[in-house]
Amino acid sequence: MNFFKSISGQIQGKSLRQLVANFRNEYISNGIAESDLKENPIDQFEVWFNEAVSNKLREPNAMHLATATPDGKPSGRVVLLKGFDERGFIFYTNYSSRKSHELEANNYASLTFLWLELYKQVRIEGIVHRIPPIEANHYFSSRPRGSQISAWASMQSQPVNSRHELELRMEDIEKEFSGKPVPRPENWGGYCLAPTKVEFWLGRSNRLHDRILYELQADNTWTKQRLSP
């Protein structure tokens, strides 16, 4: 049942704080058969990612990146997947950002993709490392010029006095690189998360969901195991 239809008669006189426990949708799917899954989770991710793209979902490459400090204080944010291959999952950021500081101190992180229209979620855990500068240069050169300039203008995660100050920085950088290519800033680049665990989740009726966990073994092979929902 559609959520908005299910609570439409309950809203009058009540706050969303009171109603949030009633937010509920039923997930109807055909489930996951282990025999249909690829042996490698990156290959299986490609199958599901292709489905998300084919269904024209908005921002199918949006993913939640969770990091933590060495003493276990977590933080999370949504970033964009910009590549994946046999190495893992690639994203780009400012190396001076909070996420980068945490990754440099504790390089174990997780990614989560949620394609709600398909009732699908993928959870990935692994070790993060910087990608080679030449690869970061190639991607940076493909970005829109405005995005290239903003990478120079923004001191990501640092306090700024006003929006006007940011805009003035943008204008200064535009003048500095007027008529010539914008190079990649040294403090901007990419990371690759090499997975050690990948879980594929598919919503099913009555909350009896399907969960299949891939785990990397010492010999670089993968095992698959079904988990309780």
TrEMBL record:
The keyword Flavoprotein applies. Binds 1 FMN per subunit. One of its GO terms (molecular function) is FMN binding. PROSITE patterns: PYRIDOX_OXIDASE. It catalyses: pyridoxine 5'-phosphate + O2 = pyridoxal 5'-phosphate + H2O2; pyridoxamine 5'-phosphate + O2 + H2O = pyridoxal 5'-phosphate + H2O2 + NH4(+). It holds the Pfam family PNP_phzG_C. It is an enzyme of class 1 (oxidoreductase). Substrate binds at residues 24-27, 82, 139, 143, 147, 207-209. SUPFAM superfamilies: FMN-binding split barrel. Pathway: Cofactor metabolism; pyridoxal 5'-phosphate salvage; pyridoxal 5'-phosphate from pyridoxine 5'-phosphate: step 1/1; Cofactor metabolism; pyridoxal 5'-phosphate salvage; pyridoxal 5'-phosphate from pyridoxamine 5'-phosphate: step 1/1. GO terms for biological process: pyridoxine biosynthetic process. Keywords: Flavoprotein, FMN, Oxidoreductase, Pyridoxine biosynthesis. Its EC number is 1.4.3.5. Residues 188-229 form the Pyridoxine 5'-phosphate oxidase dimerisation C-terminal domain. FMN binds at residues 77-82, 92-93, 98-99, 121, 156-157, 201, 211. Residues 50-174 form the Pyridoxamine 5'-phosphate oxidase N-terminal domain. Its cofactor is FMN. Gene3D superfamilies: Electron Transport, Fmn-binding Protein, Chain A. Homodimer. Catalyzes the oxidation of either pyridoxine 5'-phosphate (PNP) or pyridoxamine 5'-phosphate (PMP) into pyridoxal 5'-phosphate (PLP). Belongs to the pyridoxamine 5'-phosphate oxidase family. PANTHER family: PYRIDOXINE-5'-PHOSPHATE OXIDASE, PYRIDOXINE-5-PHOSPHATE OXIDASE. This is Pyridoxine/pyridoxamine 5'-phosphate oxidase.
